[in-house]
């Protein structure tokens, strides 16, 4: 697996009530790509023995994922590890998530679990 370093720049989108993480990935040869992930809470109805309640689950939406192919797996692993540390168990690409890599190739991916 290729060695890649990750830098994270968090911000807050008040209109969407979401924390946005901008990821920058670098290798010894320079920048290999970027990713943008929006995080928020999903409220699900939940039936309990003493009544109904709302369950709040942290989720992430991948809005952008532009990484050179050689570093894609290592970058995804680092990014999902970071999200897991934050307690985010669900990571979903946007409905039209087709990522363009730095080298111009395209990659489309299905929703993936955070490990």
Give the SSE order as H and E letters. EEEEHEEEE
Write down the overall geometry. elongated
Q: What is the count of β-strands?
A: 8
Q: Characterize the main sheet.
A: 6 strands, mixed
Would you write up a description of this structure?
The chain has 115 residues and is mostly beta strands. It has one domain (5-113). Helices cover 12% and strands 58% of the residues. The strands form 2 sheets. The protein has a 6-stranded mixed beta sheet with strand order 1-2-3-4-5-8, covered by helices on one side. A hairpin with a 5-residue loop joins strand 6 and strand 7. The longest helix has 14 residues, at 72-85. The chain is elongated. The model is unreliable at 95-115 (pLDDT under 50).
């Amino acid at each position: 697996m290729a060695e890649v370093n990750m830098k994270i720049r968090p911000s807050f989108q008040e209109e969407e009530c979401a924390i946005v993480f901008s990821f920058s990935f670098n290798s010894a040869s320079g920048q290999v790509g970027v990713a943008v992930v929006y995080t928020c809470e999903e409220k699900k109805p939940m039936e309990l023995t003493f009544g109904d309640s709302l369950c709040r689950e942290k989720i992430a939406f991948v809005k952008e994922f532009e990484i050179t192919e050689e570093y894609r797996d290592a970058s995804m692993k680092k990014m999902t590890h970071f999200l897991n540390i934050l307690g985010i168990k669900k990571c979903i690409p946007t409905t039209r998530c087709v990522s363009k890599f730095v080298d111009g190739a395209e990659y489309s991916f299905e929703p993936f679990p955070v490990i």
